[in-house]
Amino acid sequence: MAQGRTIPETIRPEVWQACLGVQKKESPLLHFSEIFDLPDQSALRTDCQQAVSKLGNEDEDKVSVISDLESILTCYCKSTKNKFEKGNGWIEILLPLLSLKLPRAETYNLFDSIVHQYIPRGCKKNGLPFHLFRLLLQYHDPELCSFLDTKRVSPDLYCLPWFQSLFASNCHLPALLTMWDHYFQLADPFFIFFLALVMLVNARDQILSMKDDAKATVVDALSMMPCDIAADDTSDFCTLAQYYASKTPASFRSELIDAFFGTEPPIPCEKLGISQALCLPISAHDLVFNPELPEGENVKFFLVDCRPAEQYNGGHLPTAFHLDCNLMLQEPATFATAVQGLLAVQQQALASNSVAGGDHLCFLGSGREEEDQYTHMVVASFLQKHTTCVSMVAGGYSAIHQLVEENPVIKLDDHNPQICIGCRETHNVEEMTNSMQTSTSSYELFGKLSAAMKSKSAEVKEKLFEYIVNPTGSNGQAAERHVRSSDKVGKRYRNMAPVFSIDDEDGDASSIHSLEDEGDQEVVAIQTWLKKPDVVKSFKCHEVKMNGYMYESYLIVTESHIYVLRDIQGRKGFANIAVRRPVSSIVRITSKKKHPDLITFKYGIADGDKPIISDMDRFLIPEAAEATKVISQQIMKQLNVQVASQK
C-alpha cells in the first residue's frame, strides 16, 4: 500500500479495514437481537427511507439498503449508548460504506471506527471544533476570516455537515471514495480541518466577491463547495491540505486530541481556552523546543516579546525580539517605527538562516491580565492588517519560566532573579505582604473620602461633578469617589463605589460581554448623525473590544445617551451603531494612570456599597479629558432631574 495514493476498487475494502484497524475485529452486529425498539426508532427509520429515496438504485436495492442502514444504526445506538439525532451525519457516512458491498458486520466495524477516530466530538452549533477551525483559518488567511466574521458567518453554519460526515453529505461518491483513500492512509484525525481550510482558501476570491450578498447567500454558497470536487482533483486537494497541515503549529493537536477524539468525557470548552482565544495558541514547550524538530517538518517562529521593558530586561529567551506594547498607546509613531524594525529584523534573520528567524510571528505576553490586555491590542493590530501566521504563547512568560525551572538545560538571557517576574511570583513572599499593605492603605483612603462626602444634596452634586471632571489630586495620584446613601441624590447614586477613577482596572471586565455583538447592527450615515440637533459633542475614537480588536469610530454624546458609530470598511461615510447607552446607566468611568486616553465606561445598578456592573465599553479617545467632562456634565443634568422629581 502506497500512502496517499488512490486505492484500486478491487482492494479498497481490505485496505480500509487495515487502515482503520478492524480486519479481525468481532462485530457487535453478530450478536444483535434484531429488536428495533429505540425511543426514536420511528425517526431513525424515516431518515433512512428519505436518504435512500434520493439514490438512483432499483426499488429492490433500496429496500435492502434501508434494512442495512436501520440495522447497523440501531445496533450501534444500543451498543454504544449513543442517541440517534436527525442530521448527525451517520447515514451519510454509512451510504458510501455500503457501496463497498461488504457483509453487514464488517460495514458496522468500519462505521464504528470512522465515527470514533475521525468525527470530532462537539460538532454542534458553536461547538469547540468550529472555534478551532476559525483560528486555523485566521492563521492562514486573516483577511478571509475577517470577511466572514464581518458577515457573521461562523464556521458551524457551513461546515457542520462536512465535519459530521467527513464530507460525505456534500461530496459526490467517486470523489469522496478517493478522498477517504487518502484520509485513512494518512491516519490524521485533524485532517478534516485542513481539508475544510483548503476548501475556503481555494475559493477565497469568489467568497470575497460576495461582500454585497446577504448572509444566507454566503452560507449557502460555502455549504455547497464540496459538490464541485471531482475525483481527478481529489489527489491535489488532499496534497494541498497536507501542505497546510505541515505549515501549522502542532500545539493544538496534543491539547485537543483527547477532547475531540478521546474516550473519556469531553473537557469543558471554557477550560481549553480555544473559544476565547484571540489567535492560535502555542504551548511554551513547542515554542522552546521548536528548533529541535527535523528540517522540513517544523514551523519556524519569530518570537516577539511584548512585555514592558523592565520585565524583558529581567530575563527573556535568547531568540526573543522585544516590542514594548505600551508604546502603542503612549507613542504611536514610535510604535509604528518599532514594528517596521521588527519586520526588518525578521527578514534579516530569515536571510541569514538564524536560529531566531521564522516566517511565523509568535507573540509573548507576561501571562498576567494586567499587561496582556495591551499585548492583545498589539496582536489584534497585526491581525487587522491581515498578517498571516500570527500566534501567541499560551500562559505567556509565566509558562516559559515554569518550563525553564523544570528543564535546567534551557537558559534565559539577562536573567536577574531580583527583577524577573517569574522568580518574584514564585519565591518572593515579601511582595505579597507589600501588596496587602497597599490594599490596606487604599481601603483607608477610601474610608476617609467616604466620610468626607457626607454632606447636603447640593454640595454632594457639586463635589461629584468636580471629582468626575478633575479625578486627580495635586500629587497626581488617583482618588476614588464615593457618594453615601445619606446624600439623598437619587437611588442610582446611593452607596456607590467611585464614579470616576484613574487606576488599574478591577476584575469586572473578564465576565462581561458586550450586548452589541448580538444581532445585526443598524447602518447610518455618519455626517447625518453628527449634525443631529440633539448632539452635544462628538469625538473621533477607537472602540476597543475585550479581545484587543480596535475599530475606528465616533463617540457621540447627547443629553440622554451616548452612541458609538463604528466605521464600515469599504463603505466610506457609513457606520454601524455599535453602542447605544443611556448616560443614566453609567455607574463608573475609569482610565489608566499610564494610559489616560484609554477610557472605560461601566454600566449597571447600585447594590449596597458596590455597584453591580452589567456591561462595559472601552475606547481610545485622543480628547479623553474633554469627552469625560462632557459626559460627566450630562450625568449631572440627569442627576438634577432625578433630584427635582423627588422634591
Give the topology, please.
Layout: H1 12-19, H2 41-53, H3 59-80, H4 90-98, H5 104-118, H6 128-140, H7 142-150, H8 156-165, H9 173-186, H10 191-202, H11 204-208, H12 215-223, H13 234-246, H14 251-261, H15 269-272, E1 280-282, H16 284-288, E2 301-305, H17 309-312, E3 321-322, H18 327-330, H19 332-351, E4 360-364, H20 369-384, E5 390-393, H21 396-406, H22 421-427, H23 429-452, H24 457-469, E6 500-502, E7 523-525, H25 526-530, E8 535-544, E9 550-558, E10 561-567, E11 574-582, E12 586-591, E13 598-605, E14 612-620, H26 624-646
Parallel strand pairs: 1-5, 2-3, 2-4, 4-5, 6-12
Antiparallel strand pairs: 7-11, 8-9, 8-14, 9-10, 10-11, 12-13, 13-14
Helix pairs in contact: 2-3, 3-4, 3-5, 4-5, 6-7, 8-12, 10-13, 24-26
Describe this structure in words.
- The protein has 647 residues and is α/β, with parallel strands linked by helices.
- It has 4 domains: 12-118; 128-272, Cyclin A, domain 1 (Orthogonal Bundle); 280-416, Oxidized Rhodanese, domain 1, CATH 3.40.250; 491-646, Pleckstrin-homology domain (PH domain)/Phosphotyrosine-binding domain (PTB) (PH-domain like).
- The chain is 46% helix and 13% strand.
Task: Give a summary of the structure in a few sentences.
This protein has 647 residues and is of the alpha/beta class. It has helices spanning 12-19, 41-53, 59-80, 90-98, 104-118, 128-140, 142-150, 156-165, 173-186, 191-202, 204-208, 215-223, 234-246, 251-261, 269-272, 284-288, 309-312, 327-330, 332-351, 369-384, 396-406, 421-427, 429-452, 457-469, 526-530, 624-646; strands at 280-282, 301-305, 321-322, 360-364, 390-393, 500-502, 523-525, 535-544, 550-558, 561-567, 574-582, 586-591, 598-605, 612-620.
